[in-house]
Design brief:
21% of the residues lie in helices and 24% in strands. It is built from six helices and 16 strands. The protein has a seven-stranded mixed sheet, covered by helices on one side. The protein has a four-stranded antiparallel sheet with strand order 11-7-8-16. The protein has a three-stranded antiparallel sheet with strand order 12-6-14. Helix 3 crosses helix 6. GO terms for molecular function: dioxygenase activity.
Length: 302
């Protein structure tokens, strides 16, 4: 069923009860009017993840669309970009380097991306979906005592932690690149969204410890809070076809790519929009604990 927002010039078809919508009637290969971009941004704030089917963009088109929502980051703080495209990260499903772990993009730096775009280029005939979770719904689901506890906590995010042993030489090389610069950043466990004012659990795979707690207690609490993020009712599953583009709000979501497509090829291109410094309920901002200011990665660090 297609539902049309009263103030939008396109159709919005919800694909999840708490997160996710398909945008119908927008051709991303065309120049988009600023008013239309504002409407898309409003839909993003409401639905957290937007799917644009069969757009058939090239790299230049994806860069052009992503830049409508702000300045772009480079591809990644440590991982190489697509050749000749410094703002595009290849998300390649090569065996051994698959990102099948719940995370929010690049939270190990002080200014993680505001939004991410993923564009499908090669997709397997089965599997290879992307799961996206609504961390604001997860926060609202918390029982009052847990919510009050979360409001007070801060977590340290890092790109350097105990990963599983690499399964191939290529995976080992990817791991070497990933930790070639080490970052640790302290973020609020509950982030206040700078546009909507919503509160969301700001954790995920890079959150490795809670300030003031030891490793065991940190792991237990992070697992508990994370279990609310990954409840099925808080997740939308995006099944890819070639040419699709997904735009999701990196400030209030997590995502996961299940490793369920064997040795089949899968290739997406990611372009991310620069974000601001996260703020907690008390107004305290995130701060770097270890690592440079990531100015080579995001203009927000300047």
């Amino acid at each position: 069923m297609t539902t049309t927002g009263s103030s939008t010039s396109f159709d919005i078809r919800r694909i999840g009860g708490r997160i996710g919508a398909e945008i119908i009637g927008v051709e991303l290969t065309s120049d988009l009017d600023p008013a239309l971009v504002t409407e898309i941004n409003s839909a993003l704030l409401e639905h957290k993840a937007l799917v644009f089917r069969n757009q058939q963009l090239d790299d230049a088109g994806q860069l052009r669309f992503a830049s409508l929502f702000g300045e772009l980051t480079t591809a990644h703080p440590t991982v190489p970009s697509v050749d000749g495209q410094p703002n595009i990260l290849p998300v390649d499903g090569d065996e051994g380097i698959r990102a099948n772990r719940w995370h929010t993009d690049v939270t190990f730096v002080r200014t993680p991306p505001k939004a991410s775009t993923l564009r499908s280029i090669v997709v397997p005939p089965y599997g290879g979906n992307t799961l996206i979770a609504n961390t604001a719904a997860a926060y609202r689901d918390l029982p009052a005592p847990l919510r009050e506890l979360a409001d007070k906590l801060r977590a340290v995010h890092t790109n350097d932690y105990d990963y599983a042993a690499p399964r191939s030489e290529k995976a080992a090389e990817h791991r070497k690149h990933f930790v070639s610069r080490k970052y640790r950043t302290e973020h609020p466990l509950v982030r206040v969204h700078p546009e909507s004012g919503e509160r969301g659990l700001f954790i995920g795979g890079f959150a490795q410890s809670i300030v003031g707690l030891g490793p065991s207690d940190s792991r237990d609490l992070l697992r508990l809070f994370q279990s609310y993020v990954t409840r099925p009712e808080n997740i939308v599953r995006v099944s890819w076809t070639p040419g699709d583009l997904v735009l999701f709000d990196n400030r209030i979501t997590q995502h996961y790519a299940p490793d369920d497509y064997g040795d089949l090829p899968r290739l997406l291109h990611r372009v991310t929009v620069a974000g601001d410094v996260p703020a907690g309920i008390d107004g305290r901002l995130s701060h770097a604990v270890e690592g440079d200011d990531a100015a080579h990665y995001t203009p927000a660090a300047a």
